[in-house]
Structure formats: structure tokens, C-alpha cells
Amino acid sequence: MILENINSPKDVKSLRINELKELSEEIRELIIDVVSKNGGHLSSNLGVVELTLALHYVFDFSRDKLIFDVSHQAYTHKIITGRKDSFQTLRTFEGISGYANPLESPYDAFIAGHASTSLALALGFVIARKLKNEDYDVVALIGDGALTGGEAYEGLNNLGHLGEKVIIVLNDNGMSISRNVGAISKYLARLRTSKSYVMLKKMLGKNFARKFKLALKELLLPNILFEEFGFTYIGPVEGHDLTELIDTFERVKNLNGPVVVHVVTKKGYGYKLSEEKPDKFHSAEPFDFENGKGVSKDHVTFSDVFGKTLVELAEKDKRIVAITAAMPDGTKTSYIRERFPERFIDVGIAEQCAVTTGASLAKEGFKPFVAIYSTFLQRALDQLIHDVSILSLPVVFAIDRAGIVSDDGPTHQGIFDIAYLSMIPNFVIAAPKDAFELKGLMSLALDSDVPFALRYPKDIAQDGFSKRFFLEIGKGEIIKSGTELTIVTLGPVFYEALKALEYFEKSGYSVGLINAIFAKPFDKELILKEALRSKRVLTVEDGIKRGGFGENLKAYLSDFGVEVTNIAIDDFMPEQGKREDLLKKYGISSENIVKVGVRLIEKKA
């Protein structure tokens, strides 16, 4: 095996083309093997094996800068930059990250996890290079999906205006997570399928002088967009042809000024099942290599409940429109896309656009449900304030992957939404503890005339604890009263508190439990009544402590002489690992609720 002798990019540079091809296949086998066990981003990584090897073959990224957009496609890069032996720990607790992170390796130029950032990062590196009077290449690898995000064009515009040497490698596979949408996707499709390109490819063949071939492509193909931004456009280049890739990058390396190299790849390349269904294997759960079927047990998640309930509501109410930002499958807005395609909008990787589009739809009398992961919604904070809050428009935000998120690490933790939404006037913020409450809150949000945020985790949705409770904005649910301590929970962590309550009852402690349901407005009347009874309150939430639900409740109860203790995520960025393990580690568990609760009670005894 060639791979066993690859310990750094220097080893890659010593290989011949046929050896590089063999290495490509060995890397694919390793990626498929590890992802089938651990889960991870399969399709995107299989599509860039040759491209990554060619970049490392030509450039020296111990000195040059390789910037990955999103960086979920960096597995090959990790394997050949000293992390081959630890690759089996991918996305596991204390294992290597599924994304680029300079804390993990000096070969990782910057941390990444959100799309459309690479060109702005490249701009900073180019300016720094100039100010420090240094000499190195800056290469940004960006997918066509990331070109649906506005920040990419801000970076492109400024790089073109600056005019300094920078190399943008456009990895064009026609996909982001699902199929790409919008005018840019259509433009790139025209580029890679133009008659001129197809004719040249057939006419010249692989054995013709490649430099002449590339020159003719540049002459005949439409490349106005990038040229108008000030870039030299080269491509399309076959993204799985190592010879063509290496020849292209060798030529580009000697050019001055901004350059775009348009590389056409196939997402999921080399594994038939992922080629056929690249969206299914984009972010894959562990699966059986032979048939591609997931090995985890089937279960109903909060996302499933949301998607199915949205269709049920849409069948009765024609005002409902679903909006997502390149996440139809993850948010399960794919269900409404199938049933009512005319009432489904995918804006691409453009969260700001999603929020503002929802605002204008609400202004025109529709009921938009904007479904976005928590970590991505924070990218649209200005739009939440300026476009939704000021006019108090009734947009419903379905905040998926809220709280601790398994496997993806600090870039994807959804712990900030309660804090940043709580500060915005006019917003209602609710966190269902189970499937029953999510369904009820969706109906409540539909009838609301103010912005309404529903946050829920990527987790199993329990069927329901108390199905007779009547949901009302700002009203919580009393489970039990107590004279020594009152526990107030928000969201599914309720079930951890419920387990703790069993211990308290068996041990003879008088402990109350409230399911708050709403972070804003919270049930002041109910909570104050119970807090005055026990004089001690313990809040539990799956979010950042600073500015979160517990601290807001603490500020309110402090005027009444009630002692409040908060269990939440403290002032740090959570690491990667399984959600249940991280919740336990950070004290959001029945064991820690018991531990803290007993200490509070006995301190006052």
C-alpha cells in the first residue's frame, strides 16, 4: 500500500501519476471505512480526493495557505498532513475534527464550519502577506454551493479590486448539501455543459497538448462573471484527472493577480451508492458499506415531527410557506416541498436572505416558517432585528439543531439562540420538551401575530409527558410543587429533571418541577408563586448560560429574595462528541441536578 508510507505532503510530492491514482483509491477506501463506522461527510470528501492531492503536489501548505470553505471536504487533506493514524477517531470525543482547525494542525490555515467564508479569509491573508512583505501563495477552495452565500461575493469583489495574487479553486459539483438552486448554479451549469467545452473535449482528447487545450477553453468559453470581477478564469478542468489538475495548478502558480480555476467534480465519486444519492451521504449516519443502509435504529426526531406537522398545517392553511437555506433534508422541509412545491423556497446557503424573505412574505399576509439550524441562524442576527423585529412581523422560526449537537464540534453547537433572541423585542421563544408540545406550539405560532421562535435539538422526540396541558403563550406547566427547591426546565432537558425528581421524592426532599416551555415571555406568575414557596430555584437549559433563560429568570427573581442557581453551558465553546455524553459532561443531567439540588437544600437546612 502507498498510503502507509504517506506521513506528510512531502511524501505525496515524490509520487508518480500512476502512484497518485493508486493513492486516491486507497484514501477513498479509508474515508468510506471510517465514515461508515463514525458517520460524517462522505459525498463531499469522495469528490475532492484527486483535487486535494493535486493541490498538495503543486503547493507547499506548510508555508502557503489552503483555505477550505466549510471544510467538511478536508478529510483527504487531514489524512496526508499527519493525521492518517488518528483518522479512525474522526468526529468522536477527543478525536480529530470533521472540519479544519489550526489548533489541530498547522496545515489548517483557519477554523471553518460555516459556508461562504473562504474568500473573505483569503482577502485577509493576502493583505497580511502584503503588509508583512512575505511571499507565499493563498489558495481558497470553495464549492459552487457556497457561491449562493453573499459573503462569498463580498470577498470576490474585494479580491478582484485589490488585484493581488490569489488562487480561487471553484469545486463545481452542482451540489451544496442538496441540489444547488438559483441563477449562479444555472450559470455554472452552462459553463461546464457548453457546446464549446464539450466539442473541445471530444475533439482534443486527453493526449493532446494540455496547455493548448486550456488556452482554447479560455478563449471560447463564457467566463464573463469572473472576468468582470477582475479574475483570470481558467477552466472547466476535469476534477478527477490528476494529470490535468497538476498541469493546471503548475501553470496557475506562475501567474500574477487573482485567478479562478473552475474544477468540475462529481460528488460521491468512487462509491456507487454515494454517486447515486450524494445528498443522502452528504452528512451520513453510520451505515452498512454493502447496501448503504443506516445501522442506527429508526426513531422519530424533532425534525421529523416538525416536517410532518408542517404539511398537516399547510393542508388546512394556504398562507403557510416554508423557507430554508440549503437544508431541506436536514430540516425536513423536504416534506412540504414534495406536497406543496409552490409553497417551498430554498434560498441556498443564504440565511440572511431566508430571514428577510420571510419578513416580506409575512408583511404580505403569508405565514412563513423559516427552518434553519441554530448555528446558521446566528449569521442573520441583523435581519432578525432589523427586518423582523421592528415591524413585529409574524415569521415562525423553526430552529433545528438547537443546544448541544453531536459530532460536529464548536462550529456547529447551537447554544446561543436563546441568548441572542431574548434580547430582541417582540420575539416569542419556545422550547418544546417533546413531540406533543412541538405540534401544539406550531399551531400556536401559526395563530400568533408576532415573531415566534421554536428551538429543538437534533434528538429523539419523546411522544409526550402531559398531553392534556393547554398551551398558551407565556404560560408554563407545573408538574409538582415543592417547599425546599423548585426546578425550572426549558426544552427536552425536562426529562433529566423528571428523573432527578424521582430521586428527590424517594429521599424525602420536597422538590417542585416546572416545565417553562417559554423562554420569552416566561410565566412570571407561576414561577414566582412556586419560587416564593421554596425560596430556592434551580434552572436547567441546553444553552449558553450568559444571557440565557436561567440568567434572565435569576434577574427577575432577585427582586423577591429568591436564590437562583443556573445549570447551563458555561462560558466556553463545547467540543465534539455525542450529545448525550456532552450533556452529562457539562452537568445537564439528572445526576448533576440531584447533586446541585441536594447541596442547595442542605446549605439552607
Commentary on this structure:
There is one protein chain. This protein has 605 residues and is α/β, with parallel strands linked by helices. The protein has 26 helices and 17 strands. Strand 4, helix 12 (242-253) and strand 5 form a beta-alpha-beta unit. The longest helix is centred in the first third of the chain and has 22 residues, at 17-38. The chain starts with 8 loop residues before the first helix and ends with a helix. The model is unreliable at 206-214 and 216-220 (pLDDT under 50).
CATH architecture of the largest domain: 3-Layer(aba) Sandwich
Our Rg estimate from Cα atoms comes to: 26 Å
**Proportion in helices:** 40-55%
- Provide the CATH topology of the largest domain: Rossmann fold
Mean pLDDT: 91
N-C termini distance: 68 Å
Brief synopsis:
This protein is α/β, with parallel strands linked by helices and 605 residues long. The chain folds into 3 domains: 44-71 and 103-276, Rossmann fold (3-Layer(aba) Sandwich), CATH 3.40.50; 302-455, Thiamin diphosphate (ThDP)-binding fold, Pyr/PP domains (Rossmann fold, 3-Layer(aba) Sandwich); 477-604, 3-Layer(aba) Sandwich (Rossmann fold), CATH 3.40.50.
